[in-house]
Design brief:
disordered N terminus, about 180 residues, globular, alpha+beta, about 25% helix, five-stranded mixed sheet
């Protein structure tokens, strides 16, 4: 139920951004805290990070933070028909979503987390050696006033999410060149 006077976050319209254990609006209720992943799940997530060379960037906005996830196709050489929005891109977006979800703080806060829906496109950034990336954006905003200025809760949530991402092996900004898998023609 929307809070009177609050400006809600724009919905993605297709339902892919609803986190497991969250309400349909992408928020987490008090009874749906995510448990810490089991050791075998942590290993699987760390392998996804390595396979897809997942990196993140944090953007501070006037009303919260965006954490942008970038990952590349793990099997670029085996899928010569990779194109923006292909089924491999959608699968990668789902993997990025799993990684983001694993790093969310476990308790109910005054902040809310939302993922933008899948966008059928690839991003290219020279600092990432230019590679074709699928992007997922995780928003951290006020639960009751979407446009309110950044507060201590949002900062704490950002810090905890970033710590969780680092524990999974994500790097900020770029993947080391020594680890980059070459693309064959």
């Amino acid at each position: 139920m929307p809070v009177e006077g609050a400006t809600p976050a724009p919905p993605c319209g297709h339902g892919l951004c609803d986190w497991n254990g969250r309400a349909a609006d992408g928020t987490r209720g008090a009874s749906s805290a995510i448990m810490s992943p089991r050791p075998e799940e942590l290993q699987r997530l760390r392998q996804l990070v390595t396979d897809h060379q997942v990196v993140y960037e944090v953007r501070r906005l006037a009303m919260g933070f965006d954490i942008e996830f970038y990952g590349t196709h793990a099997h670029r050489n085996e899928h010569p028909n990779i194109r923006p929005g292909c089924e491999h891109c959608e699968e990668l977006w789902e993997r990025l979503r799993e990684i983001a979800e694993a790093a969310l703080p476990p308790d109910d806060r005054a902040s809310v987390y939302r993922a933008e829906g899948f966008r059928p496109g690839l991003t290219y950034a020279p600092k990432r050696h230019p590679r074709a990336d699928v992007e997922l954006v995780l928003e951290i905003r006020h639960r009751h006033d979407y446009n309110a200025v950044v507060d201590a809760c949002e900062q704490r949530c950002r810090d905890e999410i970033v710590a969780g991402l680092r524990s999974l092996g994500l790097r900020e900004g770029t993947w080391p060149r020594s680890v980059t898998v070459p693309i064959t023609p």
